[in-house]
Amino acid sequence: LKSDTISTGKADFETSPFSILKEFEKNDSLANKKYLGKSIKIGSHVVEVSGDSAILLKLDGGIEGATINCGFDKSQKDKLGGIVAGDSVIVQCSCGGYTKPESADDLLSEKYLELNICNLLLHVPVKPKIGTDIESPKSDTANKQ
Amino acid sequence: MMKNIFKLGLILILFSAFKADSIYKTSTGSIKFFSHTTMEDIDATNSQVAAALSSGTGAVEFSATINSFKFKKALMEKHFQENYLESGKYPKSTFKGTVQENSKVDYTKNGTYAVKVKGKLTMHNVTKEITVPGKITIAGTKATLDGEFTVKLKDYDIKVPAQNAANVSQDIKITVNCALIKK
Question: Using CA atoms, how far apart are residues A29 and B61, in angstroms rounded to an integer?
Answer without folding.
Answer: 23
